Structures are given as structure tokens and as C-alpha cells.
Amino acid sequence: MGRAGESRGPDPGPARVAVVGAGAWGTTLAAIVAQREPVTLVCHSPETAARIADSRRNEPRLPGVDLPASLRPTADPAALADATDLVIFAVPSAHLRSTVAGIAPHVPASADLLSVVKGIERGTHLRMSDVIAQAGGFDPARIAALSGPNLALEIARRLPASAVIGAEDLELAARIQLRLGRRRFRLYVNRDILGVELCGALKNIIAIAAGAAEQLGFGDNGKAGLMTRGLAEMTRLGIAAGANPLTFAGLAGIGDVIATCGSTLSRNHRLGVELAKGRAWADIEATLPGVAEGAYTVDAALALAAELGVEMPIAREVHRALFEGKSVKRCLIDLLARESKDELADYDRWAAGLRSAGW
To answer: Tell me: the pLDDT tens digits for 59-91?
Structure first.
């Protein structure tokens, strides 16, 4: 990556790609684009934009990572007018609606739109692509979603990674794949955008439980069991919502579960560790280096599960630990005490749902 103060040479022209959101993931994606072409990084505040421009780093979001000179930070949404090819949304889920509403007038009509936000909106139970469409007045057919095992700091340091782009229009997904894909950032496409987005949202909840289990010394077997059963309840909800179950067996599903549940770089994993130490969510929230989306998604996930008649015991216990004052140890003990049942007990209902959804 480029170094601070290096010469850029002749002006390469307008940035036809923009990233909205200067967190770790947004900055990383902007840096990936900037390897080949100019990119605009729209920051929340002028102070953040100035700091990144001056230092060519985004500390502490991406510690020690130098940013390319062709990455252009700004807090002015009018800069989006040049992004005629692609606009990427990378803001926290809780702020996505207000952010999109504020910048929508500046988004070119020709631009493809990509959500890399992982969550379910509280109250509406909408996926993030739906929030973008509704808040910005955009045609949903313009919007794709990216998810997968994508720990931002590793990718920013150019370690190999993969992800999947979900879009009903595979030509849209292919255009974004061509724009963002790199030898060390391998992208696949999937027309099941519903499943891709649900995977990205729900795995964060499971990662909180996994972090707690690790802190309490459950061992690798116990943690693996928790991750597997977490994936099972994610899949149950996905099938009931109309998603393809094979998406949950792919990069957005099991791939992201492995990364997020197993890495200390995961903010959701770290949240689970801190909860297991006896700390309250209100005390932990301000100390995390970014947003632990699982804490903001679990309410909406449980509400959606109730609507669809799906049981999510791990998510329920995560909610109790976060917001109901139940000790993490008690939550995990209660999960272990649940009655064992046939692992494929819901197969007939799953199969019927898949047939009705056309999978």
C-alpha cells in the first residue's frame, strides 16, 4: 500500500467508486479499490476525513496500515456525484437508514449499490439492502450485498480472504465482482441475496456466544458444538424466510461463522469474552474498537424468528445475557441442559419450505 507523502503523479481523474463509512471495513474496501483506481471514502465527520488525509492511516480502526494515496477521504457527500459506477455502504446498521437518507440525493442514478452492512433493522426486521432501498428511494434491483469471513484488519494487511456477493441479478453481482475482486480477495456470486444477508447478520449473534464459551473454558469440542448448533438455528430461520440452505453452507454462512466465532479480531467474539468476565453490555459497548453488530441485531432476529415460528435458543440466551441481567455461565448451562432431539427433526418442514421458495 502507499506511504504517507508519496507522489501521486498526474491526477488520475474522478473517483468513479465511493465507500460510505470510514470504519475498519469501509476503509479496508476503499483501500482495495485504491490499489487500481481512485476511490472516495465518505467519512462521518470532517475531523475523521482530515485525520486520514494527513496521516494516511485510520488509527485505531486499522492499526499500522498505510493507506494508498489514491484513497480520497472527505466528509462532503457531494463528492459522491463522481461515483458513477459503484457506491458501497459500510456504516453501522443502527445508523444506516439516516445515513442513506442524508446522502441519497448525491448518489448517481447510474451507480450500482453494494451493502456490506451486517444486521437486521430493529422494529422493521428489514435486511440492510431493504433499508438502503427504502431510505434512499432506490430500485432494489440496483442493490447487492457482500458477506463472508472478512476480518477487516487481516484483509487490510493483504492476507488472503474470500467473500460472496449476493444479488438477484447475477450481472450486477458480476460487475461488482470484477471491480472489487483481487488475487488475495477472491469473490464469488450468489443470487440468494436473502440468505447472504441473513448469514451476515445472524453469525454475529453466535459469535457472542462463542466468545463467552471460550472465556469460560468450554474447550474446543464445546465451542465447535455451539458453533454448529448456532449454524443450525441460522439455517432454520433462513429456510423459513425463503433462503437457500446451501448459502448457509458457503462463505457467508459457515465460512463467516468459523472466522467470527474463532478470532480475537472479531468484535462480537470479544463482546462475548467480556460478558463472560461479568461485565455489563453498557460498560463494554464504549470500549470496543468498533461496533459489535450482534448486540444490535439480536432483538430483530428473535422477533423475526417469532414471526416465522422458528426456535433460536442460542440467540435467546445471548439476548438474556446482554439485556436481561442473566449471567453468561447460567445461559450456557441452560443451553447444555436442553432436551436432546433428532438433529434432522425439522427436515420435512424444511423440504416443504424449500419447494415453496423454488429452491
So the answer is: 989 999 999 999 999 999 999 999 999 999 999
